[in-house]
Amino acid sequence: MLTALFVYHSQDVAKSVQALASILVIINALSSFQIYGMPTFDELESIYVTRFKKPCAWWLRVIIRTVFGFICFFIAVAIPFLASMAGLIGGIALPVTLVYPCFMWLKVKKPKVYSPQWCLNWALGVLGMGLSGLLIAAGVYVIIDNGIKFNFFEP
Predict the structure, then answer these.
(1) From CA 65, how far away is CA 23, in angstroms rounded?
(2) Which residues are listed as membrane-spanning (predicted)?
């Protein structure tokens, strides 16, 4: 989206708005990484606690999270075909966000069959699976149409 903003709207949007959009995207990416990385951080810290039998100091948490961030960044830059396959990977991972919560709610709450909540969750789950299927098909189409581009260490 930032590329579209800079390419198509660079003349009619103030530089301060473009800078603000860039800063907000960076803040979003950094905070999202912290949120989605939390299970991994927790696991790494619990490994430390069980191995050394003492609590993890704040500075050690900072080091663990920073090293993990650098490793993730290195992998993202080093994998040469990640950008070409992003749509396909997103389509495969999308059911975790859209479908899993609906069906887990049905499994946990066990509403009456054909009640409004039951129908809504089933409809949302099926819609999520349909959208995931469309995204996977689109990702495969893009890969077939454009091919996989190998860009070693060129994000």
Answers:
(1) 22
(2) 20-37, 58-79, 85-106, 118-144
Helix pair 116-146, 100-109: axis angle to 10 deg: 160
Instruction: Look up tokens 């080091």; give the residue.
Output: 63
- Extents of the domains making up the chain: 80-155
* Residues 125, 103 contacting (CB under 8 angstroms): yes
In total, the chain counts a number of residues equal to: 155
Instruction: For residue 69, give the nearest of 90, 96, 40 by alpha carbon.
Output: 40
pLDDT over 70 at 151, yes or no? no
- Give the pLDDT confidence of 49-64 residue by residue, as tens digits: 999 999 999 999 999 9
> Which of left, alpha, beta for 70 (phi over 0: left; psi -120 to 50: alpha)?
alpha
How far is residue 95's CA from residue 129's CA, in Å, rounded to a whole number?
A: 6
> What does the block give as tokens for 15?
């530089």
pTM: 0.59
What letter would DSSP give residue 57? Answer: P
- 121 near 102, Cβ under 8 Å? yes
